[in-house]
Amino acid sequence: MEITNYLGLAVILFALGAATVLLRRNAIIVFMGVELMLNATNLAFVTFARMHGDLTGQVLAFFVMVVAAAEVVVGLAIIIMIFRARRSASVDDVNLLQS
Amino acid sequence: MNDFVAPVIDWAAVSPVLIVLGAGVLGVLLEAFLPDRVRRTTQLVLALGALAGSLVAVGLLWDRVQDGSVAVVNGSYVLTPFGLGVQAVVALCALLGVLVVAERTTTGQDAFAPAAAAVPGTVYEDETRRAGLQQTEIFPLLLFATGGMLLFPATDDLIVMFVALEVLSLPLYVLCATARRRRLLSQEAAFKYFVLGAFASALFIFGVALVYGFSGSVRLENVVAVLAEPSVSPLGTMPGLVVVGLLLVMAGLLFKVGAAPFHTWTPDVYQGAPTPITGFMAACTKAAAVGALVRVVFTLAAGLDADARHDVEVALWVVAILTMLIGTVAGAVQTDIKRLLAYSSIAHAGFLLVGTVGLDEVSSRALVFYLLAYGLATVGAFAVVTLVRERTVTRGPGEGAADDDDGVVLGEATRLAQWAGIGRRAPWLTAAFCLFLLSMAGIPLTAGFIAKFGVFSAAVEAGAWPLALLGVLASAVSVFFYVRIIVLMVLTPPADDASAAGSSSGSSSGGTAAPDDGLDGAGAEPSGVTATLTGTATRTVVVRTVVTVVGSRGPAAVAIALCAAGVLLLGVFPAAVLDLAAQAGQFRF
């Protein structure tokens, strides 16, 4: 199979991810879109590494994975925090109750 | 295959970054082991010490790099005068920013939630508040973010740049969510910042992938080499890859700079985040991101052929014009002080970009000076915002004037109208704030004037006089909205209390809830506020809120004084710093 097909796939996945981020309204789905973009990048890195015949691209893919994992930690924490706050009957300026 | 060769690392050259990141790691450990009493003091001393140490390390390295850049870890970290200059600005602004973060004011409360994970409005949150918990993790997080910012402009390796981008962003996302007051807004700011930031970094890394595909390397100098000699790379004959890649990388960086059309997060995040964090983020992130942008764009543009270089320049022109336009026009109609400062920072991003179009050393030296002038004024201005607060008044209008000890100090009074007549209550604070605003406006004898003169003349020298002209015009428009605030603070009599005083206990809820109207945004429940207030009204008769200026316990006052002194000194005697900036102009060898 032609190796450029992988690049085509990477671009399609990236575009799908970007469209997901821009069009969807659910926070988790938006977040999945970002992950899709990052993984499309990984595919591009690995394909380019194959074309160049060196390992740099594969190593870079690992970097991207680690960063994506770190991003999941922070991102999900923020999303869950928002979710918990919005479902509860929240009062914004709780200071008024302190006195 | 080759035998493993251990890398030779020049630790001294990396020390500005290492000190800060090391202190961050140490801070996390201290957080786990130290008792509650001493934790805050220790963390604060550690953070200030680390940043001061980093600044000293930059100073010690300064002479060494004047003769040539120092490549460390096989070239992943390249120390150039420009990189060091930006690092100095970042470290200095972070130092001042930490002082503001440490401020607890005379109310004894800092700007951060006692437990950021507690759901707003729950019993649990109330208990954390009553127990007087404090979130000292703020300081390690700040150090990590600063470490990323120090690394960001000091590398020619795009993947290191990506890692630095994330190291600086992720702590900032968390910090944005930690405000003590208006927590729903704060959380929303963190969420928006996170989603848009993650999107921008995905664009950035895809751009890096394309550049890698073109050249087989993520080192900027190798990419330039392939541009000069395309046959060495299998895909070297496809310059489209590198142009699209460069544009995507620029998109990621421009997002961090806060330039249009990637600016939409700025007002929301600046408004929602805790104000000390906003100041820190506005000054330091912008400095680091502009540094990285200069590194990437200037280096690659030197290698591009005339056509591709022209494309990049057109992109910079368009972005610069749009950014200045949006920043000044939208800024002129804001009614919230934090939002206004956010739009002003967008306008400044535009002026900075005007300075980049030359793509040479004249530009980069002007940029370093601009970043310093802008950073000082911004940290100072947001520090002032943290001290102007709302206070409840428990006495009715007929029961005598409100004195300063009366009532409970609430969150910041961010509505512009509330700032009317502040000048009479806090003349020094007002004077400092006016100075920062005048500097942002670019009035002579302030740092902002010299800085703006620098970037505009750099643009003129590069032949971009229409852009410089637009910059001057935009600057003139922005003077209007800065002066409007000054007039409001100094000349307008305070709306006093007279307008709100009409409401006695009967309409109390309306009067008290009003200051937060429109700020609460999604998820806030005005009706909930009203109900609670009416409940408490029977006990304490919360009548209205007035604007008060709380006293600083030291750190913020020091930060404001230092920023004001810096802005004045840079404006009156700029020669010494201009010399340093000229030395820092060299972005590559």
Automatic annotation (TrEMBL), chain A:
Catalyzed reactions: a quinone + NADH + 5 H(+)(in) = a quinol + NAD(+) + 4 H(+)(out)
EC top class named in words: translocase
Entries under InterPro entries matching the protein: NADH_UbQ_OxRdtase_chain4L/K (IPR001133), NUOK/Mnh_C1-like (IPR039428)
Pfam family, one: Oxidored_q2
Parts forming coiled coils: none
Primary residence: membrane
EC identifiers of the protein: 7.1.1.-
Cellular location(s): Cell membrane; Membrane
Membrane topology note: Multi-pass membrane protein
Superkingdom to which the source organism belongs: Bacteria
Keywords noted in UniProt: Cell membrane, Membrane, NAD, Quinone, Translocase, Transmembrane, Transmembrane helix, Transport
Membrane-crossing residue ranges in chain numbering: 6-23, 28-48, 60-83
Function statement: NDH-1 shuttles electrons from NADH, via FMN and iron-sulfur (Fe-S) centers, to quinones in the respiratory chain. The immediate electron acceptor for the enzyme in this species is believed to be a menaquinone. Couples the redox reaction to proton translocation (for every two electrons transferred, four hydrogen ions are translocated across the cytoplasmic membrane), and thus conserves the redox energy in a proton gradient.
Similarity comment text for this entry: Belongs to the complex I subunit 4L family.
Quaternary structure note: NDH-1 is composed of 14 different subunits. Subunits NuoA, H, J, K, L, M, N constitute the membrane sector of the complex.
Name under which the protein is recorded: NADH-quinone oxidoreductase subunit K
Gene designation per UniProt: nuoK
UniProtKB/TrEMBL annotation, chain B:
Enzyme class, first EC level, given as a word: translocase
Transmembrane segments: 12-32, 44-62, 82-102, 138-154, 160-179, 191-215, 235-259, 280-302, 314-333, 340-359, 365-388, 428-451, 463-483, 556-578
Keyword Nucleus found: no
Family annotation (Pfam families): Proton_antipo_M
Limits of the NADH:quinone oxidoreductase/Mrp antiporter transmembrane domain: 156-477
InterPro entries hit by this protein: NADH-Q_OxRdtase_suN/2, ND/Mrp_TM
Keyword match Translocase: yes
Task performed by this protein: NDH-1 shuttles electrons from NADH, via FMN and iron-sulfur (Fe-S) centers, to quinones in the respiratory chain. The immediate electron acceptor for the enzyme in this species is believed to be a menaquinone. Couples the redox reaction to proton translocation (for every two electrons transferred, four hydrogen ions are translocated across the cytoplasmic membrane), and thus conserves the redox energy in a proton gradient.
Stated family: Belongs to the complex I subunit 2 family.
Protein name (record): NADH-quinone oxidoreductase subunit N
Chain's gene name: nuoN
